[in-house]
Structure formats: structure tokens, C-alpha cells
Amino acid sequence: MKKNTLTMLFFISVICVEAQSYIGFLTDNYSGVNSVIANPANITDSRFKTDINLVGASVFAGNDYYGVNVMDALKDDYDFDLDATKSPSNDNNIVTYVDIMGPSFMFNLNKKSSLAIFTRARTVVNINEINGNTIDALDDDSTDDFNVNEGDFNIFGQAWAEVGLTYARVLMDKDQHFLKGGLSLKYLQGGGSGYVQGKNVTIDYDADGIDPNTGSFDSTGELTYGRFAEFDNDNYDYELPDANGFGVDLGFVYEWRPNHTDYTKTNADGDAYSLKHKNKYKLKVGVSLTDLGSINYKEGSEDVYDITNTGVNEDDFDNADDIEDFLNTFYSLTESNDSYKTNLPTALHLNADWSFSSRFYVNLNTDVALTKKGKENTSRISNIASLTPRFESRWFSFYVPLSVVEYNGFQAGAGLRMGPLYVGSGSVISALTSDDTKGADVYAGLKVPVYQGSPRDRDKDGVIDKLDACPKEAGPVENNGCPWGDKDGDSILDNEDTCPEEAGPIENNGCPWGDKDSDTVLDNVDICPDVAGDVENGGCPWPDTDGDSVLDKDDECINEVGTVANNGCPEPVLEPEVTVEIQKTLNKYAKTILFNSGKSTIKEESNVVLNEIVDILNEYPSAKFSIEGHTDSVGSEALNQSLSESRASSVMTYLIEKGVASSRLSHIGYGESKPITTNTTKAGQAQNRRVEINLVK
């Protein structure tokens, strides 16, 4: 009996598993329909058009009692008793979790929502509060006797299948903030369950017993034994139990997208298209609640026994038809029920994913059990925290999860995805390198992924087909990818035609010429298009520049007020003649005009004499005068000629500015060509540098 019991415990410790399925793979944005088991919100706004999982299996092994070197353990001469590391305590634990994902698929309903249908088969076994000293007692080769003071313990296992329907939807997509949520409803079919719960249990085994050929044992305490059928009976044939229920998963994912504009295409109408083949976030945070639900075993049995008895023969235990038969024969049945419910391993999942680039990411994930350890009829996951750096692309991903697992401690693994194949382990590195491995796992699967492709642009005009009004004809972005037309047939394309519905000349931007002032002169030839005028004056009204009521077209003196009788000119006024004396006076004044040396600018002190000249000229308003500049012979002839002209011009400009009509004045420079005396003396040169104002006859 001792060896049988020890063998059973060894077996359980080897197959026991952890909490999370597919460690590492589920962090991948390309895990597709498989990701619903971690967070149902994952399937919408994904990198898939559709994803079909053919089959996948995840099996994890671990405990907190035995630690081994996996490579050594595979050797034929490995002895668990001698070579394994043992960590006995009053509360050793084992949890088994096998997750098989069957045919499943997901697809997009529209750009904001997605649907998935999935199938799974799962097995969970929890063994809690086992006294590690019990295993030591069973493993003591110095005696066949052993004593077990187990106190309270709980062993519970169940297997079930589920068919789930997941709906996920984008809840918010505003600039850099993005939120989506998802809900999975699961129909549960129980495949079998059983549990044993002990209170204050002790067992004292005597190998010699009451008969030297067989052992016997004494026991105390209370034992609750539940099972879906008498599966330990030799005549038992498995039948699917009448057991079903419902489960719910709920999850949300938030993404921070600081560069969201880089992943959005927009056409001229403002229609936007988000690039579906790219991850857009810098930080992604997910939270989910999974496995809310239970399974009702309508034909199950639950019996409570007082197992206080002495001298129970080991042969009676070995020869019993099944456990129920043995318990009913040797112990007192205190309570019995015809059905029971089992609870799913409800858990909270928190996940944060940071994108260093489009290829490199790091993920932090925490799975927290929300069911109490040792709770009757209730499965429980092991708490786990994982940090997973990964390389990720459409057809290939590689990840290295580093985890701390309840009962197992630290473990390191590796996994990869290559198109339809995904395979990995959350503990392969630590299992191969550590002498104290308490956990090992492996997963593998096949799928048919159909990824989102980059948006097509068949006409290569820079406008993607989704936003291109003419996807087969190249055209500018401003016209939504269509070539510009010419609706009015005036040879001016509509994008340059101000009047695309009316033919018009190029000169008027494609619009017909109008006649805004209705003067029968079209605006293109109308000099005054806003004021009615005569055709003879280019469409402008005739002006009266001098305001003498004689229009300029009839006014022979348009700048002088005149009379109608004199054709707009002033009546002639007799004025005195310019006498020789007046001429001499003008030249006398002119000779005193001073200029800056070598320049044509008039010195300020000459203004007085110039004003005298203005007064004289104004006395003879009809007389015309020539202002003549002269120089001495010092310097080049060309320079003197230029200087004489400039000085004559400066004097004329001054006179005009003081009110002398420009029509009465002219100027000329003679340079050194007309001296009035010799240039061989300073005095002669000074006389020759002069300005003369002469009457033009």
C-alpha cells in the first residue's frame, strides 16, 4: 500500500500544471482567435481578416514539493528519492491544467466589430494543503509503517468542453485614445469531475497488521467524496455525464496612440481609413475577467463519511469494487446528496504591452486567481506574473517569457510563431538549466491565418482604393483619385475652371465675360467694368479733369478751366511782355544760385533768390522759359556736360515744386561749350559756372 500511494503522488506531481495557457504566444498581436481566452476584446481591430485555429494544446507541469534537473531526470538511473530536491511543508500544493483549443475562427463584422466562435477542452486538478511530511513518511525505506497526520486537505479535478461565442467592438477611437471591449458567452459540457475533502484526517498504517501477511490501518476524521460516476469500478464504462452550464469572459483593451495620424489615410471629402495591417499603439493596457460560471452535475453523488475506525485490513481496501463500496463498508455515511455544482477557475488578468518599434515589444502580464484555495468543488489557477520581450512580424514572432509562478517560483521559456505553426514553452530555459525545476510546460498548435494586407492602390495615384472614387484611373488627391474633367467643354479642366458649368475663355478662368455695368462693353474690354461709360472711351464715362463742364473729349485744355465757348480753354488774357530788363534780372538772379561742389544739389542759401525768380515767372503765366546750365573747362568735357544738365534740371524741378507750370519750362545743359569769358583764370572760371533763365520765343 505504501509503494502504491507513493507512486500515485509521484505521478500527480509530474503531471501537475500551472495557470496560464500558451505562455508567451498570447502576448503576440498575431495570436488571432486564440487570444480570446486571455481577453475577448483582442479580436476586434486586429491584424486579421479572419483566423482559423485548427488545433492547439497547452500542457503545464509543476508543484512546490519536488525540484529536478530535467535533463538528469530523463536518464535511466535517475532516482527521485535520492536525486530530486524536496521542499516539504505543511501546505504543499499541486494544480493541473490542460487546455486544448479545437477548431475555432474569428472574422470582422465591420470596421468596428468582430465575432469569434471557439471550442476548447480543459482539465484542471487542484491538490491543496497536502502535508509534505506525509510524502517523506511514505518515502522512508527504513520501515514499511507510516503515520499520516494530514489535518485538512482538498483534492478536486474536473474536465469540461466549451463552445464559446465572442463579440468585440471598438468603444472609443478619438485621436490618440482608443478603447475596445469584448464579451464571450460559453456553453459548458461537463466531462467528469471528482473531489475529496478531508477534515482532521489521520492515518496510522501498520505493515504487519492483524495478520503478518497483510497490513492494516487506523483512521480518524471526516471525508467528503464527490464524483460524477463510479469511475473507479472495474465494470465502469465512460458515458458523457448529464452536466452542463454557462460561463462568461469579459475584457477591455486601451491603446495609447500618440502617432495615430501616421496610420490614417484621408481623402478630399474627409473620409478616413485606418491602416489595419499595422499596430498603432505605443502602450496597450488590457484587463479581463475570465471563467465566471459553473457546471451542474445533475446525476453526481456527494457523500460525507466519518472515517474513524481501527484495524481496517489492507486486503479489504485492495479488493473493494470501488471507493464508494469501501467507504460504505467500513465507515459511517453522515450525509448524501444526489447532485452538485463545480465552479470554473475564475481569474483576473492584467496586461501591459509597450512598443519599442514596429518589431520589438515587451509585455507584462499578471494572472490572479479569484477563487479561494481549497474551496470545495472549485478549480483554481496558480497566480503568475510574466515579463515577455518579443520580436513580432506578420509571419514570424519570437518571445522569451520570464515568469514567477505560484508554487513553482521563477521560470524562463521561449516560443515562436511561423505562419500557421505556433510552438513554445514558458519554462524550457529554466527546465534545461536549473537543478531545482518545479515546473515544465509545452504548447503547440496549427492555424490558418488570413492577415490584413496593406491597402491597395491599383492606379498608383497615391489614393488607396478604399478612398479612391476612381480606383482604376489615376487622379489627384484633391479630386479623390479621379482625373479632372471638363464639364463645360471649354478646354479648361474643372479644377482650374471658375465656372465649370459654363464655357468661357482661359483669360477669364473658364467663365464667360460679363457686363457688370450694362454699358454694352464686355468686362474683358471695359476699362471701367463697374461704371457705365461710352464705347469710344473703353467703357468708361468721359471725365472732366479741370471741372469746367467741358468733357475731356471735347476740352482742348483738359488741365485748365475754360469756357464752353472757347472749347474748354480759358479766354485769352493779355499779359505784359518779358522785357530785356526782366530777362537781365532773371539771369542776374540765376547766376547767384549756388550748388554743392561737384554736385547738382542746390545749397539752401539759394532758396531766397530762387523764390524771387518764381515770383517773376508767375507774373508772366504764358511765357515759356529755358533753364540753361553751364560749367567751366575744368575736368572732362563729358563730366561737365552731365553736371550742367543735372544742375539745370535741379533748378527746373525747384521752380515746378513752387508752382510754376511744367509746360512753361524746359532745361538744357551746355557744359563748357559756351563760356562768357576766359577759363584761364579763377575769376573767369567762376563766371563761366552759371545758370541762365532765358525766354523761349
Tell me what you see in this structure.
By secondary structure, the chain is mostly beta strands. The protein folds into two domains: 2-367 and 410-451; 580-696, OmpA-like domain (60s Ribosomal Protein L30, Chain: A, 2-Layer Sandwich). Helices cover 14% and strands 39% of the residues. It contains eleven helices and 29 strands. The chain has helices spanning 2-15, 70-73, 80-83, 132-138, 314-319, 323-330, 428-433, 580-590, 607-618, 637-657, 682-688; strands at 48-62, 66-67, 85-86, 92-101, 104-110, 113-130, 146-174, 177-211, 214-227, 243-256, 264-266, 272-274, 283-297, 301-306, 309-313, 332-337, 340-343, 347-355, 360-369, 384-392, 396-399, 402-405, 409-412, 414-418, 421-425, 439-451, 624-630, 665-671, 690-696. The strands form four sheets. It has a 22-stranded antiparallel β-sheet that branches. Strands 28-27-29 form a three-stranded mixed β-sheet. It has a two-stranded antiparallel ribbon with strand order 2-3. Helix 8 runs antiparallel to helix 9 (607-618). The longest helix has 21 residues, at 637-657. It is rod-shaped and about 175 Å long. The termini are far apart. The relative contact order is 0.10.
Question: Layout of helices and strands, plus pairs?
Answer:
Elements: H1 2-15, E1 48-62, E2 66-67, H2 70-73, H3 80-83, E3 85-86, E4 92-101, E5 104-110, E6 113-130, H4 132-138, E7 146-174, E8 177-211, E9 214-227, E10 243-256, E11 264-266, E12 272-274, E13 283-297, E14 301-306, E15 309-313, H5 314-319, H6 323-330, E16 332-337, E17 340-343, E18 347-355, E19 360-369, E20 384-392, E21 396-399, E22 402-405, E23 409-412, E24 414-418, E25 421-425, H7 428-433, E26 439-451, H8 580-590, H9 607-618, E27 624-630, H10 637-657, E28 665-671, H11 682-688, E29 690-696
Parallel strand pairs: 27-28
Antiparallel strand pairs: 1-4, 1-5, 1-26, 2-3, 4-6, 5-6, 6-7, 7-8, 8-9, 8-10, 9-14, 9-15, 10-13, 11-12, 13-17, 13-18, 14-16, 18-19, 19-20, 20-21, 20-22, 21-24, 22-23, 24-25, 25-26, 27-29
Helix pairs in contact: 8-9
